[in-house]
Design brief:
Elements: H1 3-6, E1 14-20, H2 26-34, E2 52-58, E3 62-68, H3 79-92, E4 96-102, H4 109-120, E5 125-130, E6 146-148, H5 157-168, E7 187-191, H6 205-216, E8 220-224, H7 226-235, E9 242-245, H8 250-256, E10 263-265, H9 266-274, H10 277-284, E11 295-300, H11 311-324, E12 329-334, E13 347-350, H12 358-370, E14 375-377, H13 378-386, H14 389-392
Parallel strand pairs: 1-3, 1-4, 4-5, 5-6, 7-8, 7-9, 9-10, 11-12, 11-13, 13-14
Antiparallel strand pairs: 2-3
Helix pairs in contact: 11-13
Length: 400
């Protein structure tokens, strides 16, 4: 794999999940597809007890994340239920599912249940009828979504790759972070505060991705810290096309940037990119209406060491308290953890979600909405608390 592909973040890869009952040959098929020993293979049913993930390049798809899941029919009373629940969670971040079934047997109740889940989550899937080398003669595949495969002989592996490539090509209209908002030769100013919570030696992912899209649009980017912004704007002969800032610097930056210059944040652009900005804007309206003591879930898509001025545990709560004049009960989740049952919560505030896939964030949003829980994000919340939400939505442009 070349270095560029190695650097593609997991959230930007095509996630392919292999699902099925125990001993259907999922792990063997994953190894055959990738040409690597990604998963442990054994004749003992239930060898894969937890999801196994592998980042790689898979032609003709490009950068992918392959996930081999535990058997969905695990009959262990306690651990089995946990493994099945974790397998379901893997589905929520899966772009394309591969259901691996024994070609010599009719589809089981477990496999039918998985197909129902794929359809419920609108997840495109392929039915890989494995161990087909044991069939003689080889029958015709029942439908266009099915393919006979053999991890042992390599039968159908090329066809499976081609089918995956075809499904990946129907993902829909491409979304952009900023590229569709600017034109060649435009100037974009990116305000990236470097404080004790900033990662050492690098920019955070939304800043990197935004900068790259500016360059891809053949526009110009100037990257500054908040303290240098006034001096930069003073020496520019013409105003920038737009200014993008870290949300936690909204108050200072909005006072510096003229009203005539569009202003937004990396977090708001990320919510738009991930497809939940409209929900986030609607959700933040609930903040003012919440009573004292209401429960708010603050969800972060990554895990990191908390600093003294951490945005999720310090800056965001302080801004909310000042804006509402109320004290709320704040609870946290991070990384791949997100409660399916949100009973008792009154609001969910999510981070920008740069480390989670669009599909997973959509699931988190739908989970909250289905239970009547307003769902918003850091950037929208901080903009509302600063009193500049409409401005940071660029007077509605970002909601179109």
């Amino acid at each position: 794999m070349n270095q560029a592909l190695e650097q593609v973040p997991a959230s930007e890869r095509i996630h392919i999940g292999f699902f099925g009952a125990r001993n259907a040959g999922k792990s063997s098929l994953v190894n055959a597809l990738t040409g690597q020993e990604v998963s442990i293979v054994s004749d003992v049913a239930g060898t894969t007890t937890d999801a196994v993930c592998k980042s790689m390049e898979l032609l003709p798809l490009g950068a992918v994340m392959i996930t081999d899941t535990a058997g969905f029919d695990d009959d262990d009373a306690a651990l089995g239920a946990l493994r099945i629940e974790k397998t379901k969670r893997e589905l929520y971040r899966t772009d394309i599912a591969v259901l691996v079934a024994d070609a010599a047997k009719p589809l089981s109740e477990t496999e039918q249940e998985l197909i129902a889940l794929f359809r419920q989550e609108h997840t495109p899937y392929i039915l890989a009828l494995n161990k087909a080398d044991l069939l003689d003669p080889l029958p015709q595949a029942a439908n266009k979504n099915a393919v006979y495969t053999s991890a042992k002989t390599g039968l159908g592996i090329h066809a499976l790759k081609e089918m995956l490539g075809a499904l990946a090509g129907t993902a829909g209209e491409e979304r952009y972070i900023i590229r569709d908002l600017i034109a060649p030769d435009d100037l974009v100013v990116l305000v990236t505060p470097i404080d004790e919570s900033a990662p050492k030696g690098r920019l955070i992912l939304p800043q990197q991705q935004t900068l790259r899209e500016v360059l891809d649009a053949h526009a110009n980017a100037l990257v500054v810290q908040t303290e240098q912004l006034t001096g930069l704007l003073r020496i520019l002969q013409t105003p920038p096309r737009m200014v993008v800032t870290d949300s936690q610097a909204f108050r200072a930056v909005s006072e510096i940037v003229p009203e005539s210059v569009p202003l937004t944040s990396f977090s708001i652009l990320m919510a738009r990119y991930k497809g939940f900005l409209q929900t986030a804007v609607a959700g933040v309206d609930a903040l003012k209406q919440l009573p004292d003591g209401a429960r708010i879930l603050i969800a972060e898509g990554c895990t990191h060491h908390r600093q003294c001025n951490d945005i999720g545990t310090v800056k965001l709560p302080n801004a909310i308290r000042k804006f509402t004049g109320k004290t709320f009960r704040l609870e946290y989740c991070s990384g791949g953890t997100f409660p399916a049952d949100l009973t008792g919560f009154d609001l969910v505030i999510h981070c920008g979600g740069c480390m989670r896939t669009e599909r997973e964030l959509q699931w988190r949003m739908r989970t909250a909405r289905a239970q009547g829980i307003p769902f918003t994000n850091y950037g929208v919340t901080l903009a509302a608390c600063t009193g500049i939400l409409e401005r940071t939505l660029m007077q509605g442009v970002l909601l179109k």
